[in-house]
Amino acid sequence: MKRYLLDTSALLTPRDDEPGAARVSEVLQQAAKGKARCYGCIMSLMEGLYRVWRDKTEASSRLAYQQCLELPLEWVRDSDALLIKAAEMKALYSLSLADGWVAACTLEQGATLIHKDPEFHALPLEQEALPVKNQKIEREIICWPGLCRFYCNKGAISRP
Q1: If you average pLDDT over residues 48-70, what whole number do you get?
Q2: pLDDT of residue 156
Q3: Using alpha carbons only, how large is the chain's radius of gyration in Å?
Q4: Four-CA torsion 126, 130, 132, 136, nearest 10 degrees
């Protein structure tokens, strides 16, 4: 079964109706149907919480946090082995602290990292880079209902 780990940048893509939102929805739908396993790093929960808080309100961020917990993701939390792997990634590569944890979680789960962050390109892990904001996309945006409730502020169509 295919395994994916969604970076914070991927999780927030539908919120701003950015390129790649359809791919994030597709992966989440696969997970909901049991055709793939999806993971998220605990650091992505924290990043999402503070980013929505900063962009909107504390109440909005807490709602977004709860809605992230409802997504068909398994949240990878800390362990001694994960801490050591995250420290290794941070020591060997030019990564933010959060990205070091995300990379370690991806490796620990044997997953493909889905992201928009150029810092990850140099890492020795399977990855799928989503298009960045200034790249034109041809795909229709299909939102995952759990994300649409909070993130989609552009009126995207929600499809189960």
Answers
A1: 93
A2: 39
A3: 15
A4: 140
Residues contacting residue 60 through CB under 8 Å, at least 6 positions apart: 52, 53, 150
CATH architecture for residues 2-158: 3-Layer(aba) Sandwich (3.40)
Residues with Cβ within 8 Å of 126's Cβ and at least 6 positions away in sequence, in order, are 106, 111, 112, 113
Residues 6+ away with beta carbon under 8 Å from 127:
106, 112, 113, 114, 115, 120, 121
Instruction: Tell me what the mean pLDDT of segment 85-96 comes to.
Output: 96
Ramachandran region, residue 76 (left: φ > 0; alpha: ψ -120 to 50; beta: rest):
beta
Span 19-38, pLDDT tens digits: 999 999 999 999 999 999 99
Q: What's this model's pTM, rounded to 2 decimal places?
A: 0.81
Tokens 């050591």, located at residue: 84
Q: Taking the domains of the chain in order of start, what are their residue ranges?
A: 2-158
